[in-house]
Design brief:
48% helix; 4-stranded antiparallel sheet; 12 helices; Butyryl-CoA Dehydrogenase, subunit A, domain 3; alpha+beta; single chain; Butyryl-Coa Dehydrogenase, subunit A, domain 1; 4-stranded mixed sheet; 384 residues
Length: 384
């Protein structure tokens, strides 16, 4: 039967219709003015079940897998990559590591998009090497007290909580394994505000609009021990053991952005007339479009394969790194080619191709840079 079962076709079609009818018009209106994703859009996504696709049925989710999750992310990103990203703001794996009373309270809200979470991992001096985290969490009775800075915290203002990764033990406590001693904490907060004893300012970005990305400063922020995610000092293991899904998700977002740009380029090529005929009649441009479409489909099929492997329960670090790397590199190339087809028109806000181009460039950076993915792949091939 292949990867695309009848059920998956229906899921993809539902997400595609929603993107065409709702996401694309909003993106075309709001992205040029750096407007925010409206709450009404999030509520509609919740009604369609997009936030609960991987949540177990016992908590009100669909109980599906990475495959269906990435199908939806691809279609949403074809409209606006930020919308394709926001479905990752209900991280079920982290919530399931909280005490039962908090799971029962928060997961049903997350399923509907009513409880979204921002993630605070990186710091001003810490990016790819997360073992270098310096933000501290010192124990004080039943609480942990957080002090330090975080960077690249997208949706820190609009989210209902922030997951913060901080040190509960200094690096010198484990000189051979500096990644030990890093713990994760869930900090609930009021939507539209920062947590108590935390301040932040937006980072000026060239794309990924629709929501703000923050630099945060924690100065004595108190978190109850109940909101420690998993075991103390073991958060790095949690981070690295669950990277396959985020990397497949990034591949899906890359593919969606590339497909969106290709769709614009195809339509423009058929409408734009030069030298007395549509530019789609020129062989070089036709071949360029064919190469773009082939590159997108190759990335899509690799993503399907990786998602299928993830859902089977096997580890696929190398393959997840491959699809993240290939799809991100492809997306930058294809969106750039699409902009070139539009010529000067592509370099304006009159057409959305520049949005896809700006956003696609980011996919080579977040969730592990292209260089990090190449290191992972080569390590598997040649040893560390």
């Amino acid at each position: 039967m292949g990867y695309m079962t009848e059920e998956r076709q229906l899921i993809k079609s539902t997400a595609a219709d929603f993107t065409n009818d709702v996401v694309l018009p909003l993106a075309n209106e709001l992205d040029p003015e750096k407007g925010m994703i409206p709450r009404s859009l999030i509520e509609q996504m919740g009604e369609l079940g997009f936030f609960g696709i991987k949540v177990p049925e016992e908590y009100g989710g669909s109980g599906m897998g990475c495959f269906e999750y990435c199908l939806i992310a691809e279609e949403l990103s074809r409209g606006w990559m930020s919308v394709g990203s926001i479905i990752a703001r209900s991280p079920i794996d982290s919530l399931l590591r909280l005490p039962q009373e908090h799971r029962d309270r928060l997961i049903p809200r997350a399923v509907t998009g009513d409880f979204l979470i921002a993630a605070a991992l990186s710091e001003p001096d810490v990016g790819s090497d997360l073992s270098g985290i310096k933000c501290r969490a010192e124990k004080d009775g039943d609480y942990y007290v957080l002090t330090g800075s975080k960077y690249w915290v997208t949706y820190a203002d609009g989210a209902d909580a922030i997951i913060v990764f901080a040190r509960t033990a200094p690096p010198e406590a484990h000189p051979d394994k500096p990644y030990l001693g890093i713990s994760g904490f869930l900090i609930e907060k009021a939507r539209g505000e920062m947590p108590e004893a935390c301040s932040g300012s937006p980072i000026p970005k060239i794309g990924y609009f629709g929501w703000n990305t923050y630099e945060l400063a924690f100065d004595g922020c108190r978190v109850h021990r109940d909101f420690l995610i998993g075991e103390e000092g073991q958060a790095f293991k949690l981070l690295t053991s669950g990277l396959e899904v985020p990397r497949a998700h990034t591949a899906a977002r890359s593919i969606g952005a590339a497909q969106g740009a290709l769709d614009v380029a195809v339509q423009y090529a058929q409408e734009r007339v030069q030298f007395g005929r549509p530019i789609a009649r020129f062989q070089d441009l036709r071949f360029k479009l064919a190469r773009m479409a082939t590159d997108i489909e190759a990335a899509r099929q690799l993503m399907y394969s990786v998602c299928d492997r993830i859902d089977e329960g096997g580890r696929c670090d190398k393959e997840a790194a491959m699809v993240k790397y290939y799809a991100a590199e492809m997306a930058e190339r294809v969106t750039s080619d699409a902009l070139q087809i539009l010529g000067g028109a592509g370099y304006t806000h009159h057409f959305p191709v520049e949005r896809y181009w700006r956003d696609a460039r980011l996919t080579k950076i977040f969730e592990g840079t292209s260089e990090i993915q190449l290191r992972i792949i080569s390590d598997h091939m040649l040893g560390r």
